[in-house]
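Feature request disguised as a bug: please show the residue count (261) next to HTH-type transcriptional regulator RipA in the output. Example input:
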Amino acid sequence: MPETRQPAPRPAAPMPETPRGAGRLPHGFRMDAHSHGEGQLVYAAAGALATTTERGTWVAPANRVTWTPPGFRHAHRFYGETDVRLVAIPVDLCGALVARPGVFAVSPVLREVLLALTDRPETRPGAYERLRAVAIDELVETPDHSLHLPEPGDDRLRAVTDLLHADPGHNATLFELGRAVGASERTLSRLFHTELGMSFHRWRTVLRIHHGLIHLTGGRSVTETATACGWSNPTSFIEAFTEVVGQTPGRYQAALRNDIR
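Example output, currently without the count:
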């Protein structure tokens, strides 16, 4: 999970653990590992959110929403000044959604519904439930796996991913990483595919995109972010970022600057 060098600040009061809630959290705020009796949607209307479970880490910018089913232990970390929205999904409604954690793309309709659910009081009986039903209808599509970074169980592979987490911008080859951890390139390549479901190159690209999102949210330029995350030039970074996130780094930063909520 991406880290920052400074100690993580905490606000004066924690986010409410209520069926719905909204609040501004400072850069670096953490929610330690916990679970819920209900399902939970967490949406960063501004800023970015990293959610970690035993199945790996997702980073969700403002065009993604994280979903955690009942009973799954998870932790959150927030990047930039985050406008975070929480919506609980009762157990009897969770069957309409996938039974594992994930992230979903946020359509314009879903964004407005999530904001309405957390911004305004219920003025008519049943209005909240009707809005929540719309949100669930918008989430019935397959979750977006592009920003999911799975974590390994094999000790050799974990040693490699730990090195990459510590320095995502380092351009060591899989052969060089294998020598550092005492495993062959062939073995590690096989483990990336069998344990993580992706190639070494793809896993490192997603890791770098995670860090890129955080740097961009923190105000770094596209060029600075590309260099810090290991790309040889901004064009390569822009192409990779657009393929994974669905928009260019420039548009992502423009949306952050233009957010007035």
